[in-house]
User: Fold these one by one.
Assistant:
Number 1:
Amino acid sequence: LERELGCPVMRLETKRYDLVVVVRELAEGTKRISGHVLLHRLARDEEHVSNLVTEHYAMTDQDYRAKMRMWLWDSLAIHQKAQAKFLGTLTTGDFKMLGHDPVFSVWDEPGLFDTVPAVRALFAHNAAHMLLSNACEPNWVGDIGGGWLDAGLGHWYEYELFGRTLNYCIEEATLSDGYENGQWRAPVRRRLEREKDPFLPGLLPKRTGTMTPAEHALCWSFYDYLLHEQRAALRPILLALKHKKPARQRTRSYTGPYR
């Protein structure tokens, strides 16, 4: 990175992640937090996500093919330079490659990712996506019948760490508060009590990026249900989706009272 980009970088490697932070400081409330401190907080957050995923999916070291590379830059210019050299693309927003060698790149975009809480939530959300895309058989399930799982798990681990979820892998990600201000448990419960028609048949075939924020909340709720009521099913479902088996066929025996 240093040689190709022509600038020094702060890097920290953990068991599952290779993290880079190139920002001097970011706001946290009324305080300013250094990039060095932020880097260590991100390392703790992402290893927390990794430990939860290991527990939930009975993962082993052999299940992973690479470390997850996650980069935070202090300007759009360096973000785009990294994209052009390493990702073969050029965007103004955050960008990730999933599967065999996952990479996530973002810059401290004003109004979106220019505070410590926003960056930590964004990284936790995407850390989960990256792990599950790389695990077992490197393959992103979000566009091959597993959009509901991909969306649900990203939101679940972000929610677990920070008590809300505001990040979406869709254009609506630019909304400041998303669906129900990112606090979903009570609103989703009320919706399920009010609406009696089943929603899973229409939700399961959708790709991650085509869902509305409200549908993302339903995916989070279904993932939460599976995690607490059918946890042993998570790994078999993930493997089946990576083999492109129909989602409805694979999940039918695990839905229980869920619709």
Number 2:
Amino acid sequence: PGRGPAGRARCPRFRLTMAAHVPGRQGSSFDGAGAFRFPEEAAPETGPYPLDLYGYTDGAGEGFKFGPFGVAYDWRKDWSAEIEIMPLRLGYNYVGGEMSFTSSLDGLSYWSSYYSGFVVDCLAVLAGLSYRPIAPSALQRHAIEVGLAAGPAFIGLKNEGEGIFLLPPARKVAVCARAKVGYDFEIVPALSLGAFAGYRYLETSFGGLEGSMTAIFISSAEPNPELRRQTTAALPALPVKASGFYWGFRTGFRF
């Protein structure tokens, strides 16, 4: 009594999904022009001086990552509204270059290295719709699902490493979107196991950052004199590129 012809009229409408995924995108290199200066020196020694930089931005790290995690509401057998939380750490990133200048005090040329290491953490909160052309029923336990979602990604940058130019912590919000297809096998009405693959779009950059430290500059002139100076470097925009394909496994719970 009280059940529909398919025997599932009272099937719970909420689904909680827990997953682990593998990002398919590797990192990429970049370059740009910046400048460095000596804030504690008098003009014209203070600078600024040109600085050519190169760097590497990690795509999303390697190996299995926890997430995404989601809650969906099935308002129809084949359509669902969902909210998905996608945590992501983009691994180790760095920016480096060579600083050189000619001192106005002694006329000698000096050089030193610039290097900053940092990690980027993201937390995307997405809302979207999913459609199941094949849904579980009393007669079969398989489901095929396709879906689209978009929302804000809260991104934070922080230093990683010692003895390097320190960057100030930075945060921003960017747009994230994803398309996904999945397969699930319903073990019992309240529990399913499945696999999925998708494409995520998430790209932005951090601009206006400056790295600072006390740097040692060495001259090539004999007897190789050294200068130890507080140095500040203005960096070009540091890219965050987490777009790419990914795949993984998931467990679903109905309640």
Number 3:
Amino acid sequence: FGGEFKNTGKSMRKSLFALLLIIVTVCLLGGCEKRRDDFYQKAVEYYNKGMITEAGLEIKNALSIDSECAPCRLLSGKIALEKGNLQRAFVDFKYAADLDPALIEAKVELSKLYLLDREYYDAGEMARKALNLDASNIEARLVLASVLVESKKFGEAQEMLEIALNEDPENPDVYLSMSSVFIRQGNMEKAEGALLKGLNRLPQNTPLLMKVVAFYRKNNDSDNALKYVEKLLQSSHVQRFLPLSFIPPWATMPRLRS
């Protein structure tokens, strides 16, 4: 009986030790997750305030704790974009999309970079995956419309942009993209109409104003070009970055993949 009691006691101590080990491990993991989340939240706050360097330091701390945190990877990619490091951004967005297939924003950002890199098939596939998860995603629609234009499927591109316009009439990228579709078809009247429709809705929008100026200059309409240059200079809504559709696909940039 005594031997059995000793064996039972040893067994209980082993079980108790194992339980304590599990509790300690869970607590440690929970602590790590909290620290990671704290760093991530600080990075988000800094990023939203335009404090990119500080955001980069905080997200680096978060990733040092959990390198497979998908939202952390996504934010790291966005920070890399702000710094002009497209290759780093591409790696982070791809990693985030692989870690969490439901992370729509990672797919959308990837589709944009594929488009800029003239990888039209990959851009379209990634945009479609994003739309399969969220059929109303405007940015994915814009990317897919650009891909359709490159395939000379102008009707499909225009139809997609019209849907986007109905869903988000305050988005300047839609008007810019619609204008580009008409320009590619040689229909300058409709291209001008799309731009002016956008300015009628968003009269202080800098990218739209710049595009209108460029449009009139290219078409040797100096009077209208000058008129919108004056409006551009009077605008108090100068934006730091131009939307994706304002960047020409032939713009010089490093290849994302060697």
Number 4:
Amino acid sequence: KEIDPKLKFSVLTVKAGPNFVDALKFLCSVPWQAVLIARSKVLVLDGQSPILAAFPKVRRPWSVQIWHGSGSFKKFGYDASNFSGGRSSELLDLMNFQSGYDLVICSSKNALQHFSSAFRVAEDRIEVFPLPHFDDFFEAGPELESDAPPGGLSRKLKILWVPTNVKLFPGKDQGSRLADFASQHGFAFSEVARITSRSHPGSAYLFKKVASADIVVTDQSSIIFEAAYAKKNVFILNPFNSIDDLVEHSYLNRLELEG
């Protein structure tokens, strides 16, 4: 609107949720979302869109994909197909979920190869932009009290536990063990137990949770990038049985993990 007040801007905010009510809301919104997409010249996506996938390529608006634009620790898209809990590559091909984008955004030239593979787009369709700013969300972060006693803090340090998806790693129970550790050592502890549309990396809700934490712990969540921007201490708990399994499921190599 700053460029041209005549430009119309719409937001598709309804996503398929994990429960029946959210799924019903999504189904009811499909015709409305399809009409908006059909009328649009440009579509900016932050994730998969089954509605866009249903459009013939000749009728699609010019599409920009910013999913994981700030960075991705775990493999995603086609790179994660056929993993436990992920979609099969055959389904991705059939539904055209992760391909056909006109432009893909990422934050580093070092990620070009990975994003090209994850979205199956040529590298010349991937644009590297500077890291995004989250200043407005992080201004509310915790500050040490000025009258803190020498040699210590006047409040408990806060640990935030953000697992990617607890259903993918049954039996690990890392959250409970981390909560016990926090209690034994005098830390405050909070948890975002599931990555949903409300608590997904990129959401204001999760930004504010990160802003109020001192330490962010995760298994594979890309929240590590937002936490790093906020200058938080970040720890990673391996959700797999070995370093080899973690290397297979992530974009890090063994030297980076061990060094």
